[in-house]
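INTERNAL AUDIT FORM
Audit reference: QA-55
Scope: verify that the stored structure record matches its stored sequence.
Auditor: D.O.
Record contents follow.
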Amino acid sequence: MSEQQDDSRHRQVGWRLLFWPLLVVLVAAALWLLPRLTGPRAELVTEELLRAKRSQWRAAGIDSYEIEVEVSGAQRGHYRVVVRDSRVVSASFDGRPLDQKRARYWTVHGQFGQIERELRNARSGKTWPEGVRVRIWASFDPTTGRPLWWQRQVQGGSQTVTVRTVAFRRLD
């Protein structure tokens, strides 16, 4: 065997020895990095969780902000709301002006109220037909507790709705 063939075989063996440890390191890095890139995981919402997140939001003391929300599924639309001192000062739905009464639903406080109503409706069994199972899932900001994403998931029906905050900016 020539020296060149021996050197080539040595490099192949070296690569094979490094492949599995390298693969393990890459998979471990991906598992560590993925949650940091995708944000907090969705949780099944309970009344206790919602109370805790609402309290966390109040404690954050954010009274002025701009929020943009995308709604998809059985309902659709893009909402933009500006809140100053806890009051809606301007709002739009799909680029058109939106009255303050409807705009309040898309503030952070309003979204907490919507999630609470959805939980109550799911629990009561009066809102949905027999055999339909409704669950509320959400992901909350770890610092402020505000909803980042929430979904009314309807199993056995076609009324699933997803609400996702696409932009949030404090105005203080």
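Auditor finding: record pair retrieved intact. Helices lie at 3-38, 47-60, 100-103, 108-124.
Action required: none
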